[in-house]
Specification:
298 residues; Phosphorylase Kinase, domain 1; Aminoglycoside 3'-phosphotransferase, Chain: A, domain 2; 2 domains; 10 helices; 45% helix; globular
Length: 298
């Protein structure tokens, strides 16, 4: 039997839903390995919400078995990967959505984390152009999320620790996006950043992993590339954030104003979520979001 990492087992402390999933995991692994005729081929790994087990198929092909913690953002991961057919994203070999299980091609462990950030932005901009195709109709709509955010921005208390004008600006932008037909219709990854791009050495190309797909707007994609590796800005935040922003916009041939507006909305959504869901909000996180918002506004 495959041993689960102790760090993954510790996720049971997150609450009863997590504990129940952790308890089910060993049985799920056994069932899927047997049913899909897989051979474990290395130590199990994990991210924030999934177990990843290196395996080989009956033909000896290297692959990974991914079993995710059930949550809405990952509900249509298999559908998105199937829709991309390996173009710009990891190739899906098999899926059981009811068990939140995916069999994926095995890519190299090399990601974009150690690459110069502007070179990485160029690679990600190229992936945007491959991944932004018409969305399948089953996906959740970005416009529906924008509509919800309008109400949630309005629910922020007047004494929330952030400038009220920023909240109202984000609320106005979200309201405009919610009624904009271009807000929906494109398959977007929504969490494309340095660590979610891996090298395919066989083809010498980069591929996206771990999508949280929506039917949305290509301009919605940029924000994670601005808040990840934030510590590297150190002392030149405004200039460095804007350098990344324009590298992405220019590389993907996006509209600068529309991309900027979505960055503002996403930063304020992150702050809103932190303030409304945590009794002791992470001030460093909210400060980071405010810094990015101010930088892209000039």
């Amino acid at each position: 039997m495959t041993a689960l990492p102790e760090s993954l087992l510790a996720y049971a402390e997150r609450g009863p839903v997590w504990a129940a999933w952790i308890e089910r995991l060993p049985r799920l692994v056994r069932e899927l390995v047997e049913e899909w005729s897989l051979t474990p081929d290395g130590a199990a790994m994990h991210g924030h919400t999934a177990l990843v087990l290196p395996v080989r198929t009956t033909g000896g092909r290297p692959a990974v078995l991914k079993i995710g913690w059930p949550h809405p953002e990952a509900e249509h991961e298999a559908l998105a990967l199937q829709h991309w057919h390996g173009r710009g994203a990891v190739q899906l070999l098999r899926a059981d959505p009811h068990r939140w299980a995916l069999l994926l091609e095995r890519l190299d462990t090399e990601d974009l984390v150690d690459l110069w950030d502007l070179d990485a932005c160029g690679i990600v901009a190229g992936l945007y152009r491959q991944l932004h195709v018409p969305a399948p109709p089953q996906l959740r709509l970005l416009s529906e999320q924008a509509t919800r955010w309008v109400g949630e921005f309005g629910a922020l208390p007047k004494d929330a620790p952030l400038p009220r004008r920023m909240v109202e600006h984000a609320r106005s932008l979200a309201q405009d996006f919610a009624s904009d037909p271009a807000c929906d219709g494109t398959l977007v990854h929504t969490d494309l950043h340095f660590a979610n791009v891996l090298l395919d050495r066989a083809g010498d190309v980069w591929r996206a992993i771990d999508p949280k797909p929506l039917s949305g707007d290509p301009h919605y994609e940029l924000a994670p590339m601005l808040w990840n590796r934030f510590d590297e800005y150190a002392g030149r935040e405004r200039e460095a954030i804007r350098d990344r922003f324009f590298a992405l916009v220019d590389g993907a041939e996006l509209d600068e104003d529309r991309a900027r507006d979505w960055v503002i909305v996403r930063m304020l959504v992150n702050i809103k979520d932190e303030l409304l869901t945590n009794a002791a909000p992470d001030r460093s996180w909210t400060s980071m979001m405010l810094t990015i918002t101010k930088a892209v506004q000039g």
